[in-house]
Amino acid sequence: MRKRLLRLAQIGLLAYLVGPTILEAKNDRNKPIDPKATKETKALYRNLRKLSRKHILFGHQHATEYGHGWVGDSNRSDVKSVTGSHPAVIGIDFSGLSGRSLEAIDKTKALLRQQIIDTYNRGGVTTVAWHFSNPVSKGGFYWIDTVSVAAVSHLIPGGSHHEKYKEILRTVGDLARSVKGKDGKLVPMIFRPYHEFDGGWFWWGKPHCSQKDFVSLWRFTVSYLRDSLQVNNFLYAFSPDCLFKTEAEYLERYPGDAWVDMVGMDNYADFGRNGRYDVSAGIQKLKIVSEYAQKAGKLAAFTETGLESIPDTTWWTTTLLKSLKAEKMRLAYVLVWRNDRQSATHYYAPYPGQASVPDFLRFYQDPYTWFEADLPKMYR
C-alpha cells in the first residue's frame, strides 16, 4: 500500500427564480451548496478540496461493474488487476432509472445501490453520470434528427412534461436516500447531470435549448432534489465538453455559484482522440476550470477524458500526468471512461497484458496520483 497521508437558509421559490443574493453567494464558498448536507457529504467536500492541493484522485467509469471481457465479478476492476488497487473514484450512471418498466428500474436500483455502498465501505468515492433518455420523445439520450424532440422547455416549470420529470427525479431521490453504508450513514455522491451540454450530441445540448431554459432546468433539478425530496447526500458537478476557450465561454450556461459544488470539464478531443493532440489547449482549458473554482470557492475536476484502446503506450505519463501537473492546478480527480465488457477496442484503462500497463504503473506509482488504497478516511 502506498503512502497515506450555506447558505443561511433553504432556497425557496423566489431564490430559485431570481438566483442568490450577494450574501448567500458569499456564504456558499468552500462548502456544499446544500445547507442540510450530511456530515459525511461535508467531509467529502472538505477532503477533496484539501487533497487537491497536492494530489489528484484517479477515477474510472463503471470500474467495478464490468471490465474488458468480464462482468459482475465481486471486488474486481481492471485497474485493481493491474495495480492492486481499485480507482479512488468509481463512476456509475443513473441512465437506467427512467424510460423502462418498473421491474427493470427496480433491478437497476438494486445493482446501483450495491455498487455505491461497496465503494463507500471500501473508502472510495462515487461520481454519477446521467445519460438520461429523452422523456418527451424516442431517441434515447442522443440527439437523433429524425425522432428527437427538444425536451428541455417541456421539463421546466410550466412545461408539458414537468410532472413527469418530477416523477423521474423522485426515482433518483428514492435511490439516493436508500444507500447506507455499513456504518448506517447515507453515502455521499458527486452527481453530474446534463454533462457535455455545450455540444449537440445529447438532447439537452446547446443547439436544442436556450441558455435560459438550461439554467432553469439545472436550478429546478437541484432545488427539487435538495429542498423538496430532502436528498442531502449529493454534491452537484457542472461539466461541459471542451468547446470553450475563455472563462466567459465556459460560464455561458453556468447556473450560478449557489447551484454548483464542483466545476469540471470533459475533454477527449485535445488528448489524442482520432490521433489528434492539442495538449497545450487542453491544459489551458483545465486551467480555466481550476482558476474559476479557486476564485468561486468550488471544487474542480477533470470529469471525463481518456484515449480509446490506449494505442499510445506512454499516454499516461507523457500526456495525462504531464498535463495534470502543469500550471499548479487544483483538481480533485481525473476520470477515464469505461472498459466495455464485449468490445475488443472500446476501453480506456489498461487490463492485464494491455500494451500501456508499464506506463500506467508509473502513473500509479507517482506520488501525485492517488488510488483507493491511498485514500484517508474521506467521510470524516
TrEMBL record:
Principal localisation? secreted
**Active site annotated at which positions?**
196 (proton donor), 304 (nucleophile)
Give the catalysed reaction(s), semicolon-separated.
Random hydrolysis of (1->4)-beta-D-mannosidic linkages in mannans, galactomannans and glucomannans
Q: Which UniProt keywords apply?
A: Carbohydrate metabolism, Glycosidase, Hydrolase, Secreted
Return the EC number: 3.2.1.78
For this record, the Gene Ontology CC terms, alphabetical, are:
extracellular region
Q: InterPro entries, per this entry?
A: GH (IPR017853), GH26_dom (IPR022790), Glyco_hydro_26 (IPR000805), MANB/E (IPR016714)
Q: Which GO terms describe its biological process?
A: substituted mannan metabolic process
RNA-binding listed as a keyword: no
* Keyword Metal-binding recorded: no
Q: Supply the enzyme class, top level.
A: hydrolase
Q: Which residues bind substrate?
A: 131, 201, 268
Q: Gene3D superfamilies given for it?
A: Glycosidases (3.20.20.80)
**Where are the residues marked Plays an important role in maintaining the position of the catalytic nucleophile as a site?**
195
Location comes to: Secreted
Domain GH26, chain residue ranges per copy? 39-373
GO MF annotation list: mannan endo-1,4-beta-mannosidase activity
PANTHER family from the entry? Answer: GH26 DOMAIN-CONTAINING PROTEIN-RELATED (PTHR40079:SF4), MANNAN ENDO-1,4-BETA-MANNOSIDASE E-RELATED (PTHR40079)
The family annotation for this protein states: Belongs to the glycosyl hydrolase 26 family.
List the protein's name.
Mannan endo-1,4-beta-mannosidase
- Native organism is Spirosoma validum
